[in-house]
Design goal:
By secondary structure, this protein is mainly alpha-helical. It is built from seven helices and two strands, in the order αααβαααβα.
């Protein structure tokens, strides 16, 4: 079998075009037969109720822990100010019922629970 230059170049061109087409297909392409609602994940519902409360408390706990520079599981008014915890700073005297100059996260949680009633 003799391959002419024209046949050879045609085969190479077809191979290059098919490689180019494959390279343009996204890796996560699921095909046209899949319904649109199944192609992309549904957006998650925003947190509400107890889930929202838990999420907010987890974020507050994380910020509280970052503010606790000496790692004694409590923060002073100055640490609260430095960390930008304005709510704790503004209500520090009401949160610090024992008057020791430091508040724990449990103190903050109790204050929030009492304030919510």
């Amino acid at each position: 079998m003799t391959i002419t230059p024209r046949t050879f170049f045609s085969a190479v061109a077809c191979a290059l075009l098919s490689l180019n087409a494959c390279a343009q297909t996204p890796a996560n392409h699921q095909g046209p037969y899949l319904p649109p609602e199944l192609r992309t994940p549904a957006p998650s519902k925003p947190a509400s109720g107890q889930a929202l409360h838990n999420e907010a408390m987890a974020k507050l706990k994380q910020r509280f822990d970052q503010a606790d520079l000496d790692a004694d599981r409590s923060i002073t008014r100055e640490e609260a100010k430095r960390a930008g915890l304005g709510f704790i700073d503004a209500n520090f005297d009401d949160i610090d019922v024992s008057g020791r100059g430091k508040v724990s996260f449990d103190d903050v949680r109790k204050f929030l629970a009492q304030r919510g009633k």
